[in-house]
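Continuing the batch. This is chain 6 of the set; chains 1 through 5 are on the previous pages. Same settings as before, nothing changed between runs. Recording input and output for traceability.
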Amino acid sequence: MIESKENQLDNKAFTEDCHKVLMAVSDALYAIGGKWKLMIIIAMARGNKRFTEIQRQVSGISARVLSSELKELEMNGFIIKKVESGYPVSIEYELLPYSDTLEEVVGAMTKWGMQHREKVKAEMGSEKLKNQ
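Output for chain 6:
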């Protein structure tokens, strides 16, 4: 009887911990998830500030999607849109200091992405050898 109560408490703590982790990951994916947001931030960190520069650097993104993603990044406090009046009107996007908090995430994803690419290439190479 005592063991089952302890087991229930352990199980409840595990469930609560799991829920916290899932919620945190969900929040992170909401803010930076999807195919484009981190790529946009990386392109901007490399000096691309204008809409066309970002679109050119992030190959495959449409203007409509880029516009939507920039609005979401602005809403989540990663970037700011700066509009300078004049002729013609000049619009630039600037990373806010909060975007620096993603440096570790981007570094870890870069490292993992390189490892994964090498793993897939190695597996494809060994598959080709098996089929010969």
